[in-house]
Amino acid sequence: MSLEYLNNRLQFAGQDITAVAEEFGTPLIVYDEAYMRHQMRRFHNVLSLKDIPYSVSYASKAFSTLGMIQILEEENMELDVVSIGELYTALKAGFEPEDIHFHGNNKTPEEISYALNHGVKFFVIDSVDEIGLIDSLASETVDVLIRINPGIDVDTHEFISTGQEDSKFGLSLITGDALKAVKTINDSRHLNFKGLHYHLGSQLSVYAPFVNALIRVFDWLDAHEIEIDILNMGGGYGIVYTEEDIPFPIEEGFDVIIDKLKQLCEQYERPVPHVMIEPGRSITAEAAVTVYKVGTIKTIPGVSKYVSVDGGMSDHIRTPLYGAEYEILPAELTDDENQEVHVVGKLCESGDIIGKNKVLPKNIKRGDLLVVKSTGAYHYSMASNYNQMLKPAVVFINEEGIKEVVKRQSLEQLIQNDIL
Ligand code: LLP
């Protein structure tokens, strides 16, 4: 993704960001379509080089809109969904149901029936109790994976760490739940056991946990003489929000992970399973920026300066929720000195912070534009209407120019379900 100043004006993916914001308004989420495609191809390339059966599935929770899903289809991606809403969006965009996987720790009967009726590729079973539920709702054979909890601790924020033993997700290898699930599936009327899934956590920058998970999984498979066709290693590949972040080394990491997989298959005399991965953030996060307009500026002499923008935690929840750090740039550079300021939103919460102690020009003023980097994942998809804020518009920049893919929410839409 290219972000650079030209004659002191910030250019994103070859477009003048101020001009884009003037056309579509703010807050605005702007994606570089080529960057997303590039990331999808990186995953495809590294796995195809390893000469194994594989597929790359996009975790639609990171950012899913009709326009995004069309790109996934063009790039030969599969898709994982965790709700009827994500599934509906994918189907409406024309995504093939046989490339969609249905996840979730509490799929409702309504969601299961909807997914069955539309013929999703498989369900990822998250609990023993879900097995009977899907079996009772199915009328023909349904492929399933089980989501295991491999009991691997990872170095990330506790809210996005999922592979540890004490988690609401997955069937434990240690307590026997995973084994019980496989047996229950094998005894079921309609469910066909295809393999395993795990997701260790998100924003991981090292591959060692993936290697350790493989060792644990193969040991378990061997101990219980379980055969699998599919091994889904989940997502979680880390990206760069600020210069302190180390991105997951996609090429080197998968080279090592798949070599380990091959070695384990050889050691246990098993065929290499179909490998699946589920990147979300690493496809879209760095592909987008959010553009805000500066409003009120409050200076507390000798203490701090607050620069308020026209969005906030309704479209930028990751800082209030996880303490996530972002880089913030002015859309236009001035000759003025810099100073540290707090960039905050306009919502009624002191925690409505976009960035604390951010270095910005001293003469920043009402009407200036600020650009927050790496907002392409878990921003639009986590946006809310708190304070009756309108969800922002989203545009894609591609070779043909700028394409609006989500309109800004209207005031009418805000109350459309209200009943007087
Ligand atoms: N597969 C499964 C089963 C997942 O639960 C997730 C993310 C992914 C794949 C994709 O992970 P990614 O590659 O995007 O890291 N709202 C949080 C992230 C929650 C992630 C939940 N699961 C955030 O903003 O950081």
Structural summary, described in words:
This protein is of the alpha/beta class. The chain has twelve helices and 21 strands. It has two domains: 157 residues, Lyase, Ornithine Decarboxylase, Chain A, domain 1 (Beta Barrel); 253 residues, TIM Barrel, CATH 3.20.20.10. Helices cover 29% and strands 26% of the residues. Helix 8 links the parallel strand 11 and strand 12. Helix 2 packs parallel to helix 9 and helix 8 runs parallel beside helix 9. The radius of gyration is 23 Å and the shape is globular. The model has no long low-confidence stretch (mean pLDDT 96). The site of ligand LLP has 20 residues, from helix 10.
Which helices and strands appear, and what pairs or packs with what?
Blueprint: E1 3-6, E2 9-12, E3 15-16, H1 17-24, E4 28-32, H2 33-49, E5 54-59, H3 66-74, E6 78-81, H4 84-92, E7 100-102, H5 109-118, E8 122-125, H6 128-137, E9 142-149, E10 171-172, H7 177-187, E11 191-197, H8 208-224, E12 230-232, H9 250-267, E13 274-277, H10 281-284, E14 288-300, E15 304-309, H11 318-322, E16 328-330, E17 338-344, E18 353-361, E19 369-373, E20 393-398, E21 401-406, H12 411-414
Parallel strand pairs: 4-20, 5-6, 5-13, 6-7, 7-8, 8-9, 9-10, 9-11, 11-12, 12-13, 15-17
Antiparallel strand pairs: 1-2, 2-3, 4-14, 14-15, 14-19, 16-19, 17-18, 20-21
Helix pairs in contact: 2-9, 8-9
The structure holds ligand LLP.
Function: Specifically catalyzes the decarboxylation of meso-diaminopimelate (meso-DAP) to L-lysine.
Binding site for pyridoxal 5'-phosphate: 236, 278-281, 378
GO molecular function, one term: diaminopimelate decarboxylase activity
